[in-house]
Design goal:
CATH topology of the largest domain in chain A: MetI-like fold
Strand content of chain B: under 5%
Low-confidence stretches of chain A: 245-249
Distance between the termini of chain A: 33 Å
Helix content of chain B: over 70%
Number of helices of chain B: 15
Subcellular location (chain A): Cell membrane
Shape of chain A: globular
Low-confidence stretches of chain B: 278-284
Distance between the termini of chain B: 41 Å
Largest sheet of chain A: none
InterPro entries (chain A): MetI-like, MetI-like_sf
Radius of gyration of chain A: 24 Å
Radius of gyration of chain B: 26 Å
Organism (chain A): Cohnella xylanilytica
Helix content of chain A: over 70%
CATH superfamily of chain B: MetI-like
CATH architecture of the largest domain in chain A: Orthogonal Bundle
Strand content of chain A: under 5%
Mean pLDDT of chain A: 88
CATH topology of chain B: MetI-like fold
Mean pLDDT of chain B: 89
Family (chain A): Belongs to the binding-protein-dependent transport system permease family.
Membrane topology (chain A): Multi-pass membrane protein
Structural class of chain A: mainly alpha
Number of domains of chain A: 2
CATH architecture of chain B: Orthogonal Bundle
CATH class of chain B: Mainly Alpha
Oligomer: heterodimer
Shape of chain B: flat
Largest sheet of chain B: none
CATH superfamily of the largest domain in chain A: MetI-like
Order of helices and strands of chain B: HHHHHHHHHHHHHHH
Number of helices of chain A: 14
């Protein structure tokens, strides 16, 4: 295709749009970094925009000097690992039979799962069930179990399973593998891409979750780091805990907030570029049919 | 007699063959048991739990309430001006957000598709997807920092000689903040299904159009857009179904009593009525009105279901693409 002048002009325009999108997307991160390494005075004077002003690592020392912070971080890691294990296992176990066309009852089970995408019990009935019905309040199960399987993820995994060639399973049957053996030793290993996607979806969802923790966890020592961060941002944590010289400072310094935000999102930001393709891949697989 | 026997036999033989089928495939069906119990308990039981919208429930172990009250709670919220404010805000925020976001996402996907340098395309995608993976707490925190009186936007206004604006506390600014932060967080990720659909378009179609002398713009218009039309319709149906919903967590984190006027939506209203300040949030309200809040939530859920069904029906009739 020859590059006509108008196409050239379009390419320049397109490059500008893309540059703008990239800059606007990254700027809030850049600003947080700049703010977190600046002095409080510089921030309040509105001097910080792209680079740290009056460079200091004091805020990081303060946040990282708190044992609480590590506890909440540790909680989050534990919830993410355990929750992901349960969620991915359950999703795969449900998706596998749903992917088998020969199962006649699937014409009942698939709509049964899909319907939950369009209608849910809603906030209050869910809350009542978990807190009052199942007595899961103040336990980690309240955070992990209610959201463990999502219909959307089941459909993604089911679509992937359906795309695997039948011949492999048939050959395994001839070799004497049973249904369970085929699932664990043939299907799952062949499905690493979609399982990786599920692991990441689940990890990120649990890592970022603060709301169910705020609903169900009364004991502060069980909080995930996201909820702790929320309290810091809302200045709901005593500001003297964060170096305000007297309690009359109602607000936690913006520098503290931004360093806490960065520290909390650091694992996601650092790992994300390397695993991004799994997220995309998973969505693409689902989209082919979905 | 004979006819009667036949009529009886047909379902029975069907049932027999089904039973045989289940017995033959019981190992595969055994996978389903625990997940189905999970769905019954955690998805379907709460749907049944909506019965407390019609029965009095004020906490405690009797999950389905103590006595029938009919439509009492529905009449109650219908008379509450705060509900109608939330209803209106919800529609306004969702619809303006949809109108802004939908075309922007489509255009961004088309533009991404026009980048010829693969590495550049990957880079833009990687960066623009990133905000999708940030916790809402971080997004809301960023919004507050960016818009604070000492933040970069107000500094810019100051440099331009304009007056500073305390954005977060001004009701008029809330819709812009809601939509802007939504675009920031979701624009890139929103393109992903379009890009997936674009890779599925038969390249012969482009060749043929090129031979006919179509330029890039015409290729996009006559080949790409028709090629991704089913995806566009699917997303549109889902979005229309979501009009009664909202980005609940974000609003909860960003609004405050000063901005309720424009920011309070149905889900936040339900939250304040049903759960309120009980969980230590700073958006304190009564809470504990489980039945009342459930009635409002059910109203929202049913309208959402009607919307998605209607949009699906219309799309099926006009473009042949549908969710089911």
């Amino acid at each position: 295709m020859k590059a006509t002048p108008s196409y050239r002009a379009f390419q320049v325009f397109n490059a500008l749009v893309m540059t703008l999108v990239v800059l606007l997307t990254l700027y809030p991160f850049v600003y947080l970094v700049a703010q977190s390494f600046s002095s409080e005075a510089a921030v309040y004077a509105g001097k910080v925009s792209f680079f740290p002003v009056e460079f200091t690592t004091q805020t990081y020392e303060l946040v990282l000097g708190k044992p609480d912070f590590y506890r909440y971080y540790g909680n989050t890691i534990m919830y993410a690992v355990l929750g992901t294990l349960i969620s991915v296992t359950a999703t795969a176990v449900l998706a596998y039979p749903l992917s088998k066309e020969k199962l006649r009852l699937n014409k009942f089970f698939i709509p049964f799962v899909l319907f939950t995408m369009y209608f849910s019990g809603g906030l209050i009935p869910n809350y009542v069930l978990v807190a009052q019905g199942l007595h899961l309040r103040d336990t980690i199960w309240a955070l992990i179990i209610p959201g463990a399987i999502s219909a959307f993820n089941v459909i993604l995994v089911k679509t992937f399973f359906s795309s695997l060639p039948n011949e492999v399973e048939e050959a395994a049957t001839v070799d004497g593998l049973g249904v369970y053996g085929i699932f664990t030793r043939i299907t799952l290993p062949l499905s690493k891409p979609i399982l990786a996607t599920m692991v990441l979806f689940s990890m990120v969802a649990i890592w970022n979750d603060w709301f169910s923790a705020s609903l169900f966890l009364q004991s502060k020592e069980k909080w995930p780091v996201a909820l702790y961060l929320r309290q810091i941002i809302d200045s709901a944590v005593n500001s003297t805990e964060f170096g305000a010289t007297d309690a009359s400072y109602a607000q936690i310094a913006a520098t503290i907030k931004s360093s806490a935000m960065l520290l909390t999102s650091l694992p996601v930001i650092c790992i994300y570029p390397f695993v991004q393709r799994y997220f995309v891949q998973g969505m693409m697989i689902g989209a082919v049919k979905g | 007699m004979a006819a009667e026997e036949q009529a009886l036999q047909a379902p029975r033989s069907y049932r027999n063959s089904l039973w045989k089928h289940v017995r033959k495939e019981w190992k595969l069906y055994s996978f389903i048991v625990i997940p189905v119990v999970y769905f019954l308990v955690f998805k379907y039981l709460p749907m049944l739990g909506n019965i407390i919208a019609f029965r009095k429930y004020r906490g405690g172990p009797n999950l389905f309430g103590t006595e029938w009250v009919g439509l009492h709670y529905f009449r109650m919220f219908m008379k509450d001006p705060t509900f109608w404010r939330a209803f209106y805000n919800n529609l306004f925020l969702s619809i303006t957000y949809l109108i802004v976001r939908f075309p922007l996402t489509l255009i961004f996907a088309l533009l991404l598709n026009e980048i010829r340098k693969l590495r550049l395309k990957k880079f833009v995608q990687t960066v623009s997807y990133l905000p999708h993976f940030m916790s809402m707490v971080i997004v809301a925190g960023m919004v507050k920092e960016m818009l604070s009186l000492t933040g970069p936007i107000n500094s810019l206004l100051g440099n331009l000689g304009m007056e500073k604006i305390p954005f977060i506390t001004v009701p008029e600014w809330f819709p812009a903040i809601y939509i802007g932060s939504g675009i920031w967080q979701g624009l890139g990720w929103g393109t992903i299904l379009y890009l997936a659909a674009m890779t599925g378009i038969n390249t012969d179609l482009y060749e043929a159009a090129r031979v006919d002398g179509a330029n890039r713009f015409r290729l996009a218009w006559h080949v790409t857009i028709p090629g991704i039309l089913p995806t566009i319709m699917t997303l549109l149906i889902l979005d229309i179904g979501g009009i009664m919903g909202s980005n609940f967590e974000k609003i909860l984190l960003l609004y405050n009593p000063l901005t309720y006027e424009t920011a309070d939506v149905i889900s936040t209203y339900v939250y304040r009525m049903g759960i309120g300040g009980a969980s230590g949030g700073s958006n304190g309200a009564a809470g504990g009105n489980f039945s009342f809040a459930t009635a409002v939530g059910l109203f929202e859920g049913i309208i959402g279901l009607i919307l998605v069904t209607t949009a699906n029906f219309i799309s099926k009739k006009t473009t042949k693409s549908s969710l089911w």
